[in-house]
Each structure stands twice: as C-alpha cells, then as structure tokens.
Amino acid sequence: MKILSWNVNGLRAAVKKDFIQNMHTIDPDIICLQETKAQPDEVLEALDGLDGYEIFANSATQKGYASTAILTKLAPLSVENDMGIQAHDNEGRIITAEYDDFYLITVYVPNSGRGLVRLEYRQQWDQDFLAFIKNHEKKKQVIVCGDLNVAHQAIDLANPKSNYNKTAGYTQAEIDGLSRIIKNDFVDVFRHLYPEKVMYSWWSYMFNARTKNVGWRIDYFLTSKTLLGKVMDCSILNEILGSDHCPVLLELK
C-alpha cells in the first residue's frame, strides 16, 4: 500500500503544474492533501482528470483558505471531518478515514504566524490534537500524515540557530508539541528509518531557497509504534514540483 501526503498550497494551482500527471506516475493507493484552498465542489472540479479515486474534502468556512482532502482507491469504512472542538473546526484542517487495520488522519496544523501571533492558539491545538489521535488509537492503530508546521530537530531545517524561538515552526513550544506525540507511542517514520539523513519538504519561495536547498522538514508520517513492522519505506519526493512543499510517501506491506 502506498499513501502519499502533500501540502499542495492551492489544489487548483497544483493541477496546472502537472499534479494529475504526477499522481498517475506515482500511483498511490491513498492521497492526502493539505492546504487545498478549495471548497468540496471546487476540489471535485479540479480533480476531474484523476480517475479511480473516491474523493473526500473538508473545507474552511473562509473560501480559499487552508482545507484538506483525501483521495482513496480503497473504500474507507467511515470518514469524519475535524476534531469536534468548535475552536478548531472552521478551517477544514483534519480528515479521518477509517480502514480495516488503522485510522488515517490527514492534518494541516495551524501555523503560529508572523511574529508568533498565533503561538498560544497553536499550543492549545497541539494539546487537543494529541488527545484526538490517542482517542482513536484506543480503537485501532493510527497513521497521521500532513503538514505539521514544525521542524522537530536541528537536522530538520537548514538554519536552526537563526530560527530557534524566533520563527514559526521552530519554537520550543512547537517542538515540545510534536515531542509529546512521539512520547505517546507514535513514531516519526522518516526520521526513524533515516536518523542522519538531511532532507527537506518545504522551501520558501523567496531567495531561490529550493534551488539552494535551504529548507525545512515539516511534512510527516507519524504512526502508532505497533504499525512499524508493516512499514517498508518513507520517502521525501523532493524532485516533484508544483508547490512550495514536496510530497512524502509511506509504503506499507
């Protein structure tokens, strides 16, 4: 089974940049998208050329903002949107699809913002999201994928010293939020498999950052520890263009 996760930074824009061709080439069983910036009808319209997938979309109240989607060849047992917490549920940031052996949760975690104006809210989100995924894990193993908007370790961004506690995505509060998930029996699959590998999944559009590979690894697959035995690989597909993020691919046996 191949599960792909990608922050497309606007699905309609990505479709104009070979998104559908890339998906046909990679041929994932499940595609999880973040930051689609589209309402459900707009998602369906944009993906008209992608055959073989059932499409589920969760959209923000504000049009053209945030939002997520799951495209799946395998019929899920159930699909639910959001966390069930009003403060978090108007930006379309979570979809949970239930399959026979696991819950798949795709998430677009809120950015703490320029000047860290949303950091306090982000800390509450992290706390509530951990409770949300652990509640699902009481029933089945869990796979979490998406843009978590945090670089967990110094190896996960090109300039750790200059960004630490100054830039959204690399404050100690955000790092601690991800650490708490990992301490609660989840595994950062890419880092588990490749403890010393330097690879990034997001690059600023400014300063020619992608060409220079001045990036951040903020897109993840986290799995219940008990699922590790089924993991074949987790790869960052940084040759795939079309967004300021690149896709991440999880392969299960």
Could you describe the 3D structure shown?
- By secondary structure, this protein is α+β, with helices and mostly antiparallel strands.
- It has one domain: Endonuclease/exonuclease/phosphatase (Deoxyribonuclease I, Chain A, 4-Layer Sandwich), CATH 3.60.10.10.
- It is 25% helix and 27% strand.
- The chain contains 8 helices and 14 strands.
- A 6-stranded mixed sheet has the order 3-4-2-1-14-13. Strands 5-6-7-8-12-9 form a 6-stranded mixed sheet.
- Strand 7, helix 4 and strand 8 form a beta-alpha-beta unit.
- Helix 4 (119-137) packs parallel to helix 6 (172-183).
- The N and C termini lie close together (6 Å).
Question: Per the principal axes of the C-alpha atoms, what is the gross shape?
Answer: globular
Helix content: 25-40%
β-strand percent reads: 25-35%
Distance, first to last CA: 6 Å
Kindly name the structural category: alpha+beta
Number of domains: 1
Largest sheet: 6 strands, mixed
Low-confidence stretches: none
Order of helices and strands: EHHEHEEEEEHEHHEHEHEEEE
What is the fourth-level CATH superfamily? Endonuclease/exonuclease/phosphatase
Note the total helix count. Answer: 8
Task: Give me the Rg, rounded.
Answer: 17 Å
CATH architect. name: 4-Layer Sandwich
Within the largest sheet, what's the order of strands? Answer: 3-4-2-1-14-13
CATH class: Alpha Beta
